[in-house]
Amino acid sequence: MMQLRRRLRFLFRRAEFERALDEEMRFHLDMRTQENMEAGLPPEEARWAALRRFGNVMLLKEVMREMWGLRWLETLWQDLRYGLRMLRRSPAFTAVAVLSLALGIGANTAIFSIMDALLMRMLPVKNPEELVCLRTSVSFPAYKKLRDRNQSFSGLAVIRFMETSITVNGEAEPAYGQMVTGNYYATLGVNAVLGRALSPEDDQVPGVGGPQGPVAVISYDYWKRRFALDPSVVGKAVTINGVPVKIVGVTPPEFFGAMGGTDKPVDITVPIMLQPRVYPVGTTALWLNGQQGSELEYDGSDEYGWRPMIARLKPGVTMAQAQAELNVLFQQVLAERAGSAMDERRQRENAERKLELTPAGKGLFAMVPERPTALLLLAVMAAPGLVLLIACANVANLLLARAAARQKEVAVRLAIGAGRSRLIRQFLTESVLLALMGGAIGVALASWGRNLLLAWISNSEFLFLRAETDTRALVFTAAATMAAGIMFGLAPAFRAAKANLATMLKDVGVSARAGRRRWEPGKVLVVAQVALSLPLLIGAGLLARSIQNMRSFDTGFNRENLLLFTTEFLGSNKPRSGALIKEIGERMVGIPGARAVGLSHPPGMVGWMKVSVEGAAPLPEGEMFASRFLAGPGYLEAVGIPLLAGRDLSTRDNENAPKVCVVSAALAGKFFPNTNPIGRRLTFPRPGADYQAEIVGVVKDVRPWRGAEAKFSRTAYCPILQDLPASYLTLEVRAAGNLAPIIPEVRRRFQDIDRNLLLDVKTWDALTDGMQFDRIWLSRLASGLGMLALLLACVGLYGLMAYSVARRTNEIGIRMALGAERGDVIRMVLRETLWLVLIGIAVGLAASQALTKIISSMLFGVKTTDLATLSVATALLLGVALFAGYLPARRASRLDPIVALRHE
């Protein structure tokens, strides 16, 4: 340790040590000189004798420096200073190399930040690795039994998310909230930064909560956005869906909810006992026997399914042990209600039911395998990796050219005794310097690229991401930077170190041999760049074609000038949704600039349901399904679905009239292939009472709003007023021309009806684009990376051809002196360029067929072998590459033969 301290002091206080070393050596020389003089030698001879006996002073100093200092660190510092001087002497080379690396490293860092937020970041809670999720739906009473009887969890909480309207000081705005059991924050280990978190005392009485009445906790972001970080917010009353609640706390700024960094940030959290008042909606409830249930009865119902549930394992308990215990308890809970009106089949089904536990430390989203976004990001992680490879190949090419230009320097250093390992270290040091500069700029570019990606990805109703360049991203950037520096620096370093000293010291004949090697490393790297760029361009083209195909595909709807206004009936508005729907239908008549107005719930098909049809042709059990869709008067006209037979739905089809429906031609053809369906009856089974309706009309087939991939649907359009209460309502407005004046007019009319009715406005195209947002952002990402790869590849090609022309200046001068025309010189250079590009395209086309299979599931109306896309991508790459090769070719053709002959 003392020796290390002395070496470090020598490193940072070298001048002081040098003075001490000079004084020490002077002392010994003086002493030896004095001894010689005392022996009878004259002073001058005594001095020379002392020096001869003392030896080489400079060598002794070097030995002492090595003993006192850290030689390897000094050598590294010398290499760094020399490398910086060399890079400053070549600003154009340095700028191109650094920018290429910055683009490659920045793209990879930006994607890594997104991946980290999506799949790797742990929840900012206490010991997140102890959290698990119960993914099986159970009733609320069953949850309470599991919570109270288990021995594996220190806490088991229920979460239910909700869209809300929060009114503060008379101003309402939409927000995203959640209802949780009182032990939610204690289970997660999250404390409030202001006030307190919810507790079990706040979650006791249905509709009331606890002793303090209805309370809520808000997020830090919502506190900042809505209350400007006012510390007096605790105790303030706000209204959630018409229900007054008191704010009792604010969560930490890094905590967005148990879903992690991939779902909507939760603005407000209330006890789950407030659900009957703040969110009385039962459309997502699941009965234990698999059917849909009614409103929750907290004091006894076993028929309402809840999910998700999040739990914390006790210390020492594994997830396998907890799952084994929970499944035993679950069967006991099911057995306690086996004496109810269950048939034998349902009892057998319940006996086979299991509770599924999955890790929840990264958030609940990370455990939902059916969402494709995570897999898509895993797939596109390879794309910026290809860009980084192209950037490294680009810089390696530049370094190879630069190393060739520095042959004389290398030869001189070898001739005066420099070791080849020292030369390799010097070249690698310069490569790492370039990589470090590229990495530093890449971090800045990554921040911009990450924000752009977040805007693309999060601009949807299905995925919300919050990502930042944190410690993990910086570590990744550092690793990518060092790997890139070593990767592109090795080839030039070893090539320079292995060069023949005698050959390098000769002046004659170098250019005569230049360019003769057909497969020198620079050309191989250019071929690789072209081959890596083409799959990215083809992938971007295929995705762009898919999006265009979906947007232009005929779904049966008339999407031109169609606006959708969606509102949700929350809180006190839920029970009176029928009256609101009637009033909305009446008040929306006569909107200026509107050709037709209709109502629906929701804006599209609701999925397949089992159906029985009176007088229908016998069909297999698996084909007795249809879509049931709630529509109001004017809907079919507003969305442009023509009536083929019978009548349309009208205002007289209300709750007091006999139930009717209008069916699609596909449904009529399936169940009544040779008969008139008008007057026949359909029956949709559902809890309580089956829904029976008489067919009064037949309309043209359409595809569901979920996308053009769906087949023409067998659909029954049922009057919305005959199936209340409703949770959502969509107003469809067909504009005669300009859409802009209609939006404020509709908003005004909704506000006149009820100020708490919040509207979400979309065009039909925006709605369908939202359903294919994964294709859209993936296409944008692939396009951006493809253009970046193309740019880097062409810069590399330009650099190689410019270097080739410079090396062959003498040869070109001889050719022109012997009668070659300028066109001949251009064709000679372009021929070499074309040869390299064509080989790269051939390799790239083969590789693209393997790589595009990754996105094959995202394609619509186009195959991975689509000739038009392959041709356009190839032509684009070939054209840009030839332009990059033409520039040095034109410069070569303008050389003066006499000047060229004097080049060497």
Describe this structure in words.
- This protein has 904 residues and is an alpha+beta fold.
- It has five domains: 2-69, no CATH class; 73-121 and 371-505, no CATH class; 128-322 and 337-361, no CATH class; 520-553 and 766-904, no CATH class; 571-755, no CATH class.
- Helices cover 51% and strands 14% of the residues.
- The chain contains 30 helices and 24 strands.
- Strands 13, 14, 15, 16, 17, 18, 19, 20, 21, 22, 23 and 24 form a twelve-stranded mixed β-sheet that branches. Strands 3-4-9-6-8-7 form a six-stranded mixed β-barrel.
- A hairpin with a 2-residue loop joins strand 7 and strand 8.
- 40% of the residues are buried.
Poorly predicted regions: 282-304, 367-372, 508-516
**What's the average pLDDT?**
79
Largest sheet: 12 strands, mixed
Q: β content, as a range?
A: 5-15%
User: Could you give the distance between the termini?
Assistant: 58 Å
Which structural class best describes the helix and strand composition? alpha+beta
Number of domains: 5
| Helical content (DSSP H or I, runs of 4+) | 40-55%
Could you tell me the radius of gyration in angstroms? 38 Å
Could you give a quick summary of the protein structure above?
This protein has 904 residues and is of the alpha+beta class.
Question: What's the arrangement of secondary structure elements?
Answer:
Elements lengths: L1 H11 L1 H25 L4 H12 L2 H12 L2 H19 L1 H30 L10 E4 L3 E2 H10 L3 E16 L2 E10 L3 H5 L5 E2 L19 E4 L1 H8 L9 E4 L2 E8 L17 E4 L3 H4 L26 E2 L2 E5 L5 H18 L7 H8 L5 E3 L13 H8 L1 H24 L1 H9 L4 H39 L12 H27 L3 H4 L5 H4 L7 H32 L9 E7 L8 H11 L6 E8 L6 E3 L1 E2 L11 E7 L3 H5 L3 E4 L13 E5 H7 L9 E4 L6 E9 L15 E5 L8 E8 L6 H12 L6 E4 H8 L1 H35 L1 H9 L4 H30 L15 H27 L3 H5 L3
Parallel strand pairs: 4-9, 6-8, 17-22, 19-21
Antiparallel strand pairs: 1-11, 1-12, 2-10, 3-4, 3-7, 3-11, 5-8, 6-9, 7-8, 13-23, 13-24, 14-17, 14-23, 15-17, 16-20, 18-21, 19-22, 20-21
Helix pairs in contact: 1-2, 2-3, 5-16, 6-13, 6-14, 6-16, 6-17, 7-11, 14-17, 14-20, 14-26, 16-17, 20-26, 20-28, 20-29, 26-29, 28-29
